[in-house]
């Protein structure tokens, strides 16, 4: 898919998180709430993450070189992996540390109503960012479930932004819960509990992203439906069968296909070359991401 939709979602998240981060830090300085501090660091991390995703999109567009003959498409996977690591370290680990610290040494909140107002405004901004990510993801999600989309998408930015925004939204709700319960009960322990819950939530999201981005970095093949389409496009005309086939995404929009295909023994070299050209055209028409196609002609020998 084009990077346009993911870029729009990234920019929406970038501007929303930057504004939210400033507001949260002001709220922390006024109230001393550990939930607000954890959410402030979370928003700063998210803002940095959006910058890294944009950087990955930019560097992935570099032309192929002799050292990197398949181009730099995997830069988008690399920077998405870094984003997952940052979410784990700056978001989850810091929130858990701060929450445990405040649980051991609780401190009363000051001007808690300020924190409540900031959190409510931040929830509104985060809803806008999350809605934008959902709208852009629906354009490419197809019939897959949301979990299936996150697991199967070869475009890393949208799943990252979706999970980040979901984590930010639920994190704000948890922070609001912690601050609200502290105001209602007068017990600052609730603020620390909210902070710990934020850390656990971000840790779960970060681990999911780390696993998915690691898989993309190592190299994933075509989806099951794409593989069926590719094989159906190959076996036509003078091509009798696919002997074996390998696929791999070398970038979100660039699929490598290598296959050995079986021909009849009485074909001329010209007929084989023409059949291969036609097969490549069929594949590219059916699977636009198939940019690199290598087909090896052979005679099929039935196993003895």
Automatic annotation (TrEMBL):
Cation efflux protein transmembrane domain segment(s): 10-217
Molecular-function GO terms, alphabetical: monoatomic cation transmembrane transporter activity
GO cellular component annotations of the record: membrane
GO terms under biological process: zinc ion transport
Keywords attached to this entry: Membrane, Transmembrane, Transmembrane helix, Transport
Highest taxon of source: Bacteria
Membrane topology type: Multi-pass membrane protein
One Pfam family in the UniProt entry: Cation_efflux
Compartments where located: Membrane
TM annotation in the entry: 77-97, 109-131, 166-185, 192-211
Protein name (record): Cation diffusion facilitator family transporter
């Amino acid at each position: 898919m084009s990077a346009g939709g993911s870029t729009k979602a990234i920019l929406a998240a970038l501007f929303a998180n930057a504004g939210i981060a400033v507001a949260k830090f002001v709220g922390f300085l006024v109230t001393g709430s550990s939930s607000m501090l954890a959410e402030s660091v979370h928003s700063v991390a998210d803002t940095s993450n959006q910058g890294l995703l944009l950087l990955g999109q930019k560097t992935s567009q570099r032309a192929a070189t002799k050292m990197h003959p398949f181009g730099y498409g995997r830069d988008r996977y690399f920077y998405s992996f870094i984003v997952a690591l940052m979410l784990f370290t700056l978001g989850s680990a810091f929130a858990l540390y701060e929450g445990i610290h405040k649980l051991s040494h609780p401190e009363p909140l000051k001007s808690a109503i300020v924190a409540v107002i900031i959190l409510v405004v931040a929830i509104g901004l985060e809803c806008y960012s999350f809605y934008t990510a959902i709208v852009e993801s629906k354009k490419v999600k197809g019939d897959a479930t949301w979990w299936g989309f996150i697991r199967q998408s070869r475009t890393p930015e949208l799943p990252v932004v979706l999970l980040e925004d979901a984590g930010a939204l639920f994190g704000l709700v948890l922070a609001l819960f912690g601050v609200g319960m502290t105001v209602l009960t007068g017990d600052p322990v609730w603020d620390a509990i909210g902070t710990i819950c934020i850390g656990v939530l971000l840790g779960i999201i970060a681990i999911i992203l780390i696993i998915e981005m690691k898989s993309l970095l190592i190299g994933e093949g075509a989806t099951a439906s794409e593989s069926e389409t590719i094989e159906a496009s190959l076996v036509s005309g003078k091509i009798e069968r696919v002997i074996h086939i390998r696929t791999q995404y070398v970038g979100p929009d660039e699929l490598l296909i290598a296959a050995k295909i079986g021909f009849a023994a009485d074909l001329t070299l010209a007929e084989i070359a023409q059949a291969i050209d036609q097969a490549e055209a069929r594949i590219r028409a059916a699977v636009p991401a198939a940019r690199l196609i290598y087909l090896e002609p052979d005679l099929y020998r039935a196993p003895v």
